[in-house]
């Protein structure tokens, strides 16, 4: 678009001294200019967001490619407390035996099917097994160090959740006789370290409101807080429509706060340096 600007030079003694014609090329009116710069801004912002998401996805891919996080956390390979003598391993569906997958599924079913049903949530064996054994799943499995009997597991995924890079804790399930001996807390602390190592922003999980033990475990003991994505925030006027909450814990990138917290709660001199964990305080 071109604009002609005509300036008549001052008249002197009744004579016009001249006319200047300026041609301004590509100069839209001010309003259009504003609109254009806003559109440009939006486009730039969209591009930046896409670039950020691409970076996060790359980070998640790298986290998934780590075959065994336990090499970084040797002191967490064993847990010997309160009558338990457990060893912990990290794996994916690809390197987990069908027997272990079946055992995990059965424990999950034994612990949770009833709670799902009482909360009007659908439970279907096949769907649950598929979710558990999904290729993105990763596991922490605790088993008796001598008999190899499985005691409990965590199922996790590195994922993008509401555009945030997270470790999603899909399950933490312990067999009845392994509970209340500190193993659950120990596994969640290990998960924090793994999430921190993988540079994820937070750990997220879903908990049924009426699972009182679990709420006490996560909220009071491990200091998880209501997550931004929880129904409490996205639908605050109808809290009773939801039987579950989404809770999370920040991993605070680069700040070393995870380590500090674990040091505080889990006897640093043993947990972080000693492979026997004999004085882990859970
Ligand atoms: C919830 C669960 C993972 C906790 O693991 P755990 O090894 O039993 O818990 P810990 O021994 O580490 O307990 C740590 C603290 O959590 C709290 N806690 C654990 N179990 C509790 C319970 N049944 N009631 C109240 N508080 C409990 C306590 O404060 C406890 O500290 P304390 O023993 O010094 O009082 C385990 O009980 C479990 O697998 N439950 C069944 C499956 C389940 O509900 N999973 C969670 C789904 S979201």
TrEMBL record:
Boundaries of every N-acetyltransferase domain copy: 86-277
Coiled coil regions in record: 30-66
The protein's Enzyme Commission number: 2.3.1.257
Compartments, record wording: Cytoplasm; Nucleus
Class of the enzyme per the UniProt entry, highest EC level: transferase
InterPro entries recorded: Acyl_CoA_acyltransferase (IPR016181), GNAT_dom (IPR000182), NAA40 (IPR039949)
Main location (coarse class): cytoplasm
GO CC entries: cytoplasm; nucleus
Reaction(s) the record says it catalyses: N-terminal L-seryl-[histone H4] + acetyl-CoA = N-terminal N(alpha)-acetyl-L-seryl-[histone H4] + CoA + H(+); N-terminal L-seryl-[histone H2A] + acetyl-CoA = N-terminal N(alpha)-acetyl-L-seryl-[histone H2A] + CoA + H(+)
GO terms of molecular function: histone H2A acetyltransferase activity; histone H4 acetyltransferase activity; protein N-terminal-serine acetyltransferase activity
Keywords associated with the record: Acyltransferase, Coiled coil, Cytoplasm, Nucleus, Transferase
UniProt keyword annotation of Electron transport present: no
Annotated family: Belongs to the acetyltransferase family. NAA40 subfamily.
Protein name, entry field: N-alpha-acetyltransferase 40
Source taxonomy: Eukaryota, Metazoa, Porifera, Demospongiae, Heteroscleromorpha
Gene transcribed to yield this protein: 105313075
